[in-house]
């Protein structure tokens, strides 16, 4: 309330970034930004996850814009958030921010973080201490922006119930903000972030999900819904495009470091979303948005490759008796087949290599199809960003994922290389057993053990149509993992036969080796990147948006 009257915040968030000046904008550029924001009809600005240059506060005072200002506590898991060292650093940051900016009348509230793990009870320690510390310096409201729509446990400790909502499906978006509105009726409720990314230059009409018009329609529908639910304010994410530190997979742009969620471009050219927001914020006439005639194109490579694999496998199965016999024995009588390999029964290198080609291509189509279908999923991007800490390598991977043909070729090559690596591992450990094992035997055991992979071929044909969302993708991936697991069990059985060692000993040794490698992997990532803490955080986010 201002002077006894309710004020609804019509806001937008702003990053301190510019194509020419980076984050060191000139005073003139800062003022141009604020004028554009004011001209849009906004009455509030959220300073994007960190305190802005002091001159921005001067401009907001002058142009009468409310400000939400916060410290850069973003995307932090609870195991880090609640350490004494982290809380001490956060308090230092808060103290510096408030001491510097408390005399600006435009500052409406102080933020103590954005999208940290507020679904964990332990996070209450951080929130309690920071709220108490802020109140000891200044009496303005305190907030944090939550991502945990369904399972936040800390909002009762702050003055404003703020939530970030990134849900494309309109019904789920509606359900989520209805839930948040109904849960916190005892305090002001604000949506601190909602927005949509675009493809640079895409004017195909709002039927294209990455077009400028689609972004504008998204803002139009969401803002009207927020108004209907009587929210106390909302902030669009974001004013202008900005450059990030890591390449992003989910956007179909050439510059993978450029985050294109702005209602104006990186160089401040207005997009249709700007004009729509201006009409909404000033009660003006909303401009007409072109619908276009976009229809999603399904890459033919996955279906075609699956059909070719099925036809080729059928041809060699029915045309060559030797392949059919080996195929049937390896499938239904694997012990007899692996015993024949041990006893030097002639299984040609050509047969085995042909099967290796089919298996690796089947895996390539499967893995490539899953990655390409989920290329716009932010959680997959989150995982890849965490696992692949070398930027140029992630850029190459993103380029491969977005290119259907490249995804099949590279994933097939990767699968074949793994087959060769497993072959050499089997051969190396054969030096520790009494029997003589030839390299061709190791190769045959590995390849024919993975024969169950070919049962993914029918899935390859329909794969792209089946996995339309992340949950379905998870189910498909689990099916693939089960088939891989069955293949590894077969491999252990085959190794025990050619080594003439009990299957139990081979199983225990293999399990021990896998556990050692997995432990080394987890220890490295957890030591360097706190991976286990971030995994727990990610699971809480996924649980909050079900």
Please summarize the sheet with the most strands. Answer: 8 strands, parallel, barrel
Low-confidence regions: none
By DSSP (H or I, 4+ residues per run), the number of helices equals 20
How many structural domains can be distinguished in the coordinates? 2
Organism: Kryptobacter tengchongensis
GO molecular function, one term: beta-glucuronidase activity
Keywords: Hydrolase, Membrane, Transmembrane, Transmembrane helix
Pfam families: Glyco_hydro_2_C
Short structural summary:
The protein is α/β, with parallel strands linked by helices.
Secondary structure layout:
Layout (H helix, E strand, L loop, with lengths): L8 E6 L12 H13 L4 E4 L6 H10 L2 E5 L7 H4 L2 H18 L5 E8 L8 H15 L4 E5 L14 E4 L5 H14 L5 E6 L17 H17 L4 E4 L5 E2 L14 E2 L12 H10 L18 H20 L1 H12 L1 H9 L6 H25 L4 H10 L3 H12 L1 H26 L9 H11 L7 H10 L3 H30 L3 H27 L1 H14 L2
Parallel strand pairs: 1-2, 1-8, 2-3, 3-4, 4-5, 5-6, 6-7, 7-8
Antiparallel strand pairs: 9-10
Report what the structure shows:
- The strands form two sheets. An eight-stranded parallel barrel has the order 1-2-3-4-5-6-7-8, surrounded by five helices.
- It has two domains: 9-196 and 215-239, Glycosidases (TIM Barrel), CATH 3.20.20.80; 300-501, no CATH class.
- The longest helix is centred in the last third of the chain and has 30 residues, at 470-499.
- The chain is an alpha/beta fold and 546 residues long.
- Helix 7 (212-228) packs parallel to helix 8 and helix 11 (334-342) runs antiparallel to helix 16.
- 40% of the residues are buried.
- It is elongated and about 90 Å long.
- It has 20 helices and ten strands.
- It is 56% helix and 8% strand.
């Amino acid at each position: 309330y201002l002077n006894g009257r309710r004020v609804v915040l019509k806001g937008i968030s702003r990053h301190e970034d510019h194509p020419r000046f980076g984050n060191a904008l000139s005073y003139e550029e800062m003022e141009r930004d604020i004028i554009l924001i004011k001209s849009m009809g906004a009455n509030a600005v959220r300073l994007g996850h960190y305190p802005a240059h002091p001159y921005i506060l001067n401009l907001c005072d002058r142009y009468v814009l409310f400000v939400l200002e916060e410290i850069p506590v973003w995307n932090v898991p609870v195991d880090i958030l609640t350490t004494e060292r982290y809380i001490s650093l956060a308090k230092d940051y808060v103290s510096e921010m408030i001491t510097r900016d408390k005399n600006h009348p435009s500052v409406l509230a102080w933020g103590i973080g954005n999208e940290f793990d507020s679904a964990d009870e332990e996070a209450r320690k951080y929130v309690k201490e920071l709220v108490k510390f802020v109140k000891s310096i200044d009496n303005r409201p305190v907030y944090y922006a939550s991502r945990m729509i369904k399972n936040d446990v800390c909002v009762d400790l702050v003055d404003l119930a703020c939530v970030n909502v990134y849900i494309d499906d309109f019904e789920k978006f509606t359900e989520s903000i209805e839930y948040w509105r109904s849960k916190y009726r005892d305090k002001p409720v604000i949506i601190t972030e909602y927005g949509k990314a675009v493809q640079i230059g895409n004017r195909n009409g709002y039927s294209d999900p990455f077009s400028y018009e689609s972004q504008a329609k998204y803002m139009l529908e969401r803002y009207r819904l927020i108004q209907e639910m009587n929210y106390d304010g909302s902030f669009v994410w974001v004013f202008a495009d900005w450059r990030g530190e890591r390449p992003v997979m989910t956007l179909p742009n050439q510059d993978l470091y450029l985050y294109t969620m702005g209602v104006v471009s990186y160089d401040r050219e207005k997009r249709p979303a700007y004009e729509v927001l201006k009409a909404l914020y000033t009660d003006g006439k909303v401009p007409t948005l072109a619908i276009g005639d976009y229809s999603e194109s399904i890459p033919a490579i996955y279906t075609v490759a699956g059909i070719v694999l099925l036809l080729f496998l059928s041809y060699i199965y029915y045309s060559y008796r030797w392949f059919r016999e080996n195929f049937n024995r390896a499938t239904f009588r694997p012990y007899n087949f692996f015993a024949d390999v041990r006893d030097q029964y002639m299984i040609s290198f050509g047969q085995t290599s042909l099967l290796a080609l089919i298996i690796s291509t089947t895996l390539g189509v499967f893995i490539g199809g899953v990655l390409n279908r989920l290329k716009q999923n932010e959680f997959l991007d989150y995982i890849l960003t965490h696992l692949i800490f070398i930027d140029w390598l992630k850029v190459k991977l993103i380029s491969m994922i977005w290119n259907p043909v490249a995804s099949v070729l590279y994933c097939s090559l990767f699968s074949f290389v793994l087959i060769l690596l497993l072959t050499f591992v089997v051969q190396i450990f054969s030096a520790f057993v009494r029997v003589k094992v030839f390299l061709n035997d190791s190769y045959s055991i590995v390849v024919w053990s993975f024969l169950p992979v070919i049962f993914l071929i029918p899935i390859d044909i329909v794969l792209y149509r089946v996995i339309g969302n992340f949950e379905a993708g998870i189910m498909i991936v689990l099916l693939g993992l089960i088939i891989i697991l069955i293949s590894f069990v077969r491999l252990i059985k085959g190794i025990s036969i050619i080594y003439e060692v009990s299957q139990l000993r081979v199983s225990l040794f293999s399990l021990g080796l896998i556990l050692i490698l997995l432990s080394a992997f987890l220890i490295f990532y957890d030591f360097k990147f706190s991976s286990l803490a971030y995994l727990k955080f990610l699971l809480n986010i996924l649980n909050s948006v079900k």
